[in-house]
Amino acid sequence: MTEVMTSRIEKQQVRTDDGRIEEVWPLPRDAEFLEGVFRYLFEERYHDFSFGPLIPGAAYELRAPGPPQSVTMSGGYLTVHWGEKGHFHLCIGERPGPAGNPNPPEVRAHRQPARVELYRRLDKNDLPLSWGLRMFNGHDEPQITVIFPNPYVTRFDKVTDEPDWGRLSLWEDFLPRFTGNEPDGRDRLGRGFGQM
């Protein structure tokens, strides 16, 4: 079990390309911290979220087929493996390459995370609407987005007007664990996608 952060990470507000506000908690980028984050998510909370790259023109919202057979770290890459059901590799650390043919510094800088953030997207009334974690490489290209459960979206991906506040449990556990901040109570004030 990953320990709770002892120091606080301050949130920032950013305006997105579509004019909305997001609250962002910039997370540490070191491999040890990120391995703890992804082990927590994929070993302990694999049934609670969807994940994949979110890029302009495509959103991959995949679900883990069950608990992984293994989560390993080697050569700067974290690998989450489900056996015959698939796996993925995620560069979270230094990847120097073989001693006789090392990776050039620019290749290493491109592959490694340059930005990792926990985010909370706000609606037009500045109330929370969606929650997640995302990581970008050295060229600011999306590596992975973890989409946390939403009280206004069912497990079967149907939008609803009746919130299920229990769906905030991953957010409410993740926030203090990895940012040192307790939930501020605003997450339960939103009114769903009708207020976008």
Question: What does the secondary structure layout of this molecule look like, with pairings?
Answer:
Blueprint: E1 12-15, E2 21-26, H1 31-44, E3 50-52, E4 54-55, E5 58-59, E6 70-74, E7 77-81, E8 87-91, H2 105-111, E9 113-122, E10 128-137, E11 142-147, H3 169-179
Antiparallel strand pairs: 1-2, 2-9, 3-11, 4-5, 6-7, 7-8, 9-10, 10-11
Report on the structure:
The chain has helices spanning 31-44, 105-111, 169-179, and strands at 12-15, 21-26, 50-52, 54-55, 58-59, 70-74, 77-81, 87-91, 113-122, 128-137, 142-147. With 196 residues, the chain is of the alpha+beta class. The model has no long low-confidence stretch (mean pLDDT 92). It is built from 3 helices and 11 strands. A 6-stranded antiparallel β-sheet has the order 1-2-9-10-11-3. Strands 6-7-8 form a 3-stranded antiparallel β-sheet, with helices on one face. It has a two-stranded antiparallel ribbon with strand order 4-5. The chain has a single domain (12-186), classed as HemS/ChuS/ChuX like domains (Heme iron utilization protein-like fold, 3-Layer(aba) Sandwich), CATH 3.40.1570.10. It is 16% helix and 30% strand.
